[in-house]
Design goal:
This protein is of the alpha+beta class and 104 residues long. The chain has three helices and four strands. A hairpin with a 5-residue loop joins β2 and β3. α1 packs antiparallel against α3.
Amino acid sequence: MKIVRVVYTTKAAYAAQNKTNIQKVMSDLQAINNSDIEYTCCVGEDGKTFTHLAFFKSPEAEKVLLTLPAFKTFQEQLKASGPEKPPMQDFPELVGSSYKMFGK
């Protein structure tokens, strides 16, 4: 399993569009119903700091997300928007979960 966490801060004027783009990614992920991907995104109290947390059961599952057209659009538009704080990525290790990962 691979876990990816990404945190960044958009400009206030771009936050609503970023939410829309993220919702499109989530909608497309729900439509393909790949049980090897668990992906969430939250926005902080400031309304413009976003935290993405993705769990991938396999490298192939990560490729599904990275090649998704909506995800590519999200990334391109975020970069073009000139975030206040650019995306910082790290790879945490799972210690435990209150739910069964990947439906098991």
